[in-house]
Amino acid sequence: SEIHFNAIPMEETKPSGSTESSQTSSTEPGLLPGETVVREGKAAILFPSANEVFYNPVQEFNRDLTCAVITEFAREQLAQRGVRILIPGEKDRVVVRLSKEKNGNVDQETSEQPENEQQMEEEGDKKEFITASVGERCEVCQGLRVLEGLAASGLRSVRFALELPGLKSITANDYSAKAAALIARNAQHNNVSHILQASQRDASMVMYEARGRKERYDVIDLDPYGSPSPFLDAAVQAVSEGGLLCITCTDMAVMAGNSGETCYSKYGSVSIKSKYCHEMALRIILHSLDQRAAVYQRYIEPLLSVSVDFYIRVFVRVKTGQAVVKNSASKQALLYNCVGCGAFHLQRMGKKMSQGKHMKYSAATGPPVGPSCEHCGQRHQLGGPIWAEPIHDITFVQKVLGAVSGNPTRFRTSKRIEGVLSMVTEELQDIPLYYVLDHLSSTVHCNTPSMLQFRSALLHAGYRVSLSHACKNAVKSDAPAEVLWDIIRCWVSDHHTLLKGLQACFEIREDANPQSRKRHLTRFQENPQANWGPKARAKAGGRISSELEDKRKQFQGKRKKQITDSSQLKSFPCKKFRKGTCTYGDKCCYSHELKEGTEEKMD
Asked: Which residue intervals are annotated with compositional bias (Acidic residues) in the record (predicted)?
């Protein structure tokens, strides 16, 4: 059995979006020989010797964002149970009665209250509410039950216990005995054993045994090494009604189109190599979650879906409803992608029509494209199905954004969270996928117009347009592909030519520049360090596979180091000769000299 560790060697480096680096110490009292303490958020985590450490400082953004999302989810859920949560430093969001006055004036900060807390205050004279603070166990049945299925060192769970209010219990599970022991030590070291329990079991079995309505978890967090697909079926069953699923995927090579057949076997969707591959990856995992939930008459409501660094992260609410599940087919779509110009079209899997109080469902009609692309004449690739509905709940995202921007000292990556969430709120929610401006220009071999010029041209033409958090030069618009190409043709000719009834105007409009760009928010983070992405998978026993790590370093920047001189190829062995199939003999440009150990393999 594999160990579900995040096999990342610990390095003292500046996390993505942080204002300072993670603090490490090896001189604290009570440490075993070779152990190190890593501080992140309010947690101080014990790690074993260097070659068995599984900590990636770049993922601090992931953990900070998760804490922010769960905080707002808890605020909504517990308000319905008569529980009010308190966050240190969140003075502007502490509930104040709307009728209270300070120095004769109504408190100006009451406008920042969440709606559910305003309602609680309005009913304050009729009912008393419980207050929940961070680090305290929310007793009886009001608190949230949290499961981290693949906890490794327990860092994420310890941070939950120290930073999230309103929790009844946290189960930090890992299949490795060493990991489970380390989780228990870290819980004790941080004085959160009253909330956090370590578990050493298979994550799927833990969730399958919690399928009963009284045993389900309010929040399930899965952050595996690679694909979460083996755990999704259990997760959609083990989360409570209206509960929160937090899923991370780091197998981006599969989801971004390098291996479409593997993507289909894991997620039930064929990925395509394209410029919009990062948003497509988000829609693939959402499709997979909805498809698996539908089997049990459940459905998903995406709250927030982000593509950052080397992974994607989705937060979805899971509910039950047979009538709503019937809409599942109409929420999915096949994707037709032109291999020449990159134009794409979506084909919904199902069709629904309203007939009075009832809905009529039927098969969709199509396809939306001909045998070849109408713009360049090239063939189409077929991908998907993917989730074709909105991937964010803007109302919920705005609540998270308001809480983070109002309490910037809570997280070290607050600036980046604010930048990413601001871009999310600006995205066109009803438009799946996007085009990339420099790719449009390179297709016709012309200079690239500025983003403001291209966005202005679309706005002048009467279409909506937005950026995307998933790609720096993305253009998300309701304009059809022919309009985009008309604008590019106008730019190539003389910027004013009338083509197919469209006269492109590139005069800069004020609304072409989004607020996140005007405010110079941290939207797209630079690489924090060399080789900062996901590392090699952990071996049984907790150590890192040095062979795989060396192989990855060897192929870093391989495109920049391509050999153009054929004489240099003699230093590389001939693969066909090693298999005994090379027919070029001495004329072969590769080496036929066998290295030590190769002859034994051939024998």
From this structure: 109-123
449-485 pLDDT tens trace:
999 999 999 999 999 999 999 999 999 999 999 999 9
**C-alpha to C-alpha distance for 236 and 30, rounded to whole angstroms:** 41
Q: CA-CA distance, 165 to 131, in Å (whole number)?
A: 9
CA dist 549 to 7, 253, 259, Å? 11, 17, 21
Q: How far is CA 367 from the centre of its chain?
A: 31
Distance CA 253, CA 256 (A): 5
In this prediction the pTM is 0.82
459 with 512: CB under 8 angstroms? Answer: yes
Contact 159, 63 (CB under 8 A): yes
Q: By three-state DSSP, how is residue 32 classified?
A: coil
Residue 560's SS3 state is: coil
Dist CA 376 CA 488 (whole Å): 14
pLDDT digits (tens, 9 = 90+) for 400-441: 999 999 999 999 999 999 999 999 999 999 999 999 999 999
Sign (positive/negative) of CA torsion 181, 183, 187, 189?
positive
Read off the tokens for 55.
Answer: 């900590």
Write the CA distances from 455 to 36, 431, 514, integer angstroms.
Answer: 50, 16, 10
Cα distances (Å, whole numbers) of residue 261 to 224, 265, 290, 344: 21, 6, 20, 20
C-beta of residue 85 within 8 angstroms of C-beta of residue 37: no
Residue type at position 162: L
The alpha carbon of 239 is separated from its chain's Cα centroid by a whole number of angstroms, namely 19
Structure-block tokens of residue 332: 């999915």
Q: Which amino acid is located at 335 in the chain?
A: L
Q: Which helix (H) or strand (E) holds 170?
A: strand 167-173
**Angle, to 10 degrees, between the axis of helix 177-189 and the axis of helix 155-163?**
30
**Spatial contact of 506 and 491, defined as CB atoms under 8 Å apart:** yes
pLDDT < 70 stretches in the chain: 1-30, 49-54, 91-128, 140-141, 494-501, 526-566, 595-603
**Please, are residues 466 and 477 in contact by the beta-carbon 8 Å criterion?**
yes
DSSP string, 492-551: HTTS--EETTEE---PPPGGGS-HHHHTT---SPPP-STT-S--PPBPTTS-B-HHHHHH
Contacts of 600 (CB under 8 A, 6+ apart): none
Answer for the pair 318, 233: CB distance below 8 angstroms, yes or no.
Answer: no
Would you give the DSSP letter of residue 238?
A: H
For the CA atoms of 31, 34, 39, 43, the dihedral, rounded to the nearest 10 degrees, stands at -50
Q: Tokens in use for 39?
A: 């501080």
3-state secondary structure of 451: helix
Q: What does the DSSP 8-state code read for residue 137? A: B
